[in-house]
């Protein structure tokens, strides 16, 4: 039989997103943040605790968080209560506050043997890399959320970036302030990022009792 008359066989590949949760990852709830912190403290995982606390406080993208340098957060033995970094995505500065608890954890981490003499706050344990990679950071997040019983596919690096920003918006309704904290150039981007219209609609619906 001629090859031209043979039926065409097409290899069917499963969709890349089959069985996965895609789209925006929801922010963590305060009780979930406390649960993760408590587990990391009990396990004496100082690096992970410093990384997690800074992720919540800073509201930085993962690529900027892992590139934080020691002198960004500390001057000698004193931790900074406010930090400004240039975002790699936008090349614009973003400022964030460092809470007292986070400063204490970061100071302990900086004083440890693992950071002594290092340029980056979270040096990689792989000699080929100068600092923790975003992939390693994402893997740690999956471990943290799994440890408190959450589905790891429902959370990601942006879950931590959104957590404090979403809480600030819910408490104040000040979208402009959240825009500045996230380093967005347009307030519409912040609204889309937080899913403000959907959250507001759900909040209104919850208050209507038939």
UniProtKB/TrEMBL annotation:
It comes from the Bacteria. GO terms for biological process: DNA integration; DNA recombination. InterPro entries: DNA_brk_join_enz, Integrase-like_cat_sf, Integrase_catalytic, Tyrosine_recombinase_XerCD. It holds the Pfam family Phage_integrase. Belongs to the 'phage' integrase family. PANTHER family: INTEGRASE_RECOMBINASE PROTEIN MJ0367-RELATED, PHAGE INTEGRASE-RELATED. This is Site-specific tyrosine recombinase XerC. It comes from Ruegeria arenilitoris.
